[in-house]
Amino acid sequence: MEITLVQGDITQQQVDAIVNAANSSLLGGGGVDGAIHRKGGPEILAECRALRAGHYGGGLPAGQAVATTAGRLQARWVVHTVGPVYDRARGQELAGVLASCYRESLRVADGLGARTIAFPAVSTGVYRWPMEGAARIALGTVREAGGALRSIQEARFVLFDGEAFGVFQRVWHELL
Ligand code: AR6
């Protein structure tokens, strides 16, 4: 599996699966979540509501992932995951939850047969996770999980601005 880094808008990516930095309600929000629902249309929200009415009555717990249609987006699926809200006092424990977001998203997308997947920098916006630490967890976890996947050939990190892109590039070169 190849890991690639690009700067851009995740909703514009031509990939099989797009990962959404959602919240437990699965009912939408700002940031990546807002953009995905806005551009993907109401079909995504309809499937999210159905998930809430069924298996995820209490919401999607942080660190887990679940797939829906991607509606009008070019992708086939949106994989919703819920990152942890940053709290320095619980850094170690929450790092495990953030790593789980990436592992679980890969597992769900791989199970669907996705060959390409795009990730945002989960938890680094509204949830305030510092970019560098988040990049280490994201890149390290995806690299480690890559070996056990069957169908995913490319995991693409899509960073919204130049600063985040620069941090991910630097961390990736340090990990190599
Ligand atoms: N494409 C790629 N990256 C983006 C885009 C985009 N279109 N838009 C923002 N980012 P956030 P979180 C970057 O806040 O921190 C929502 O309200 C952004 O610059 O989307 O996990 C949910 O409903 C940042 O670096 O997700 C939750 O309530 C990164 O994506 C909550 O926010 C993640 O920012 C989740 O917060």
Describe this structure in words.
The chain is globular. The chain has a 6-stranded mixed β-sheet, with helices on both faces. The protein contains 5 helices and 6 strands. The protein has 176 residues and is of the alpha/beta class. The structure holds ligand AR6. The site of ligand AR6 has 24 residues, from strand 2 and helix 1.
Tell me the overall shape. globular
- SSE class: alpha/beta
Rounded average pLDDT: 98
CA-to-CA gap between the ends? 15 Å
List of distinct ligands in this structure: ligand AR6
Report the uncertain regions.
none
Encode the helix/strand succession as letters: EEHHEEHEHEH
Q: For the CA atoms, what is the radius of gyration? A: 15 Å
Question: Strand portion, in percent?
Answer: 15-25%
Helix coverage percent: 40-55%
β-strand number: 6
Number of helices: 5
Q: Give the biggest sheet.
A: 6 strands, mixed
- Spatial ordering of strands, largest sheet: 1-6-5-2-4-3
What's this entry about, in short?
Helix content is 42%, strand content 19%. The protein is of the alpha/beta class.
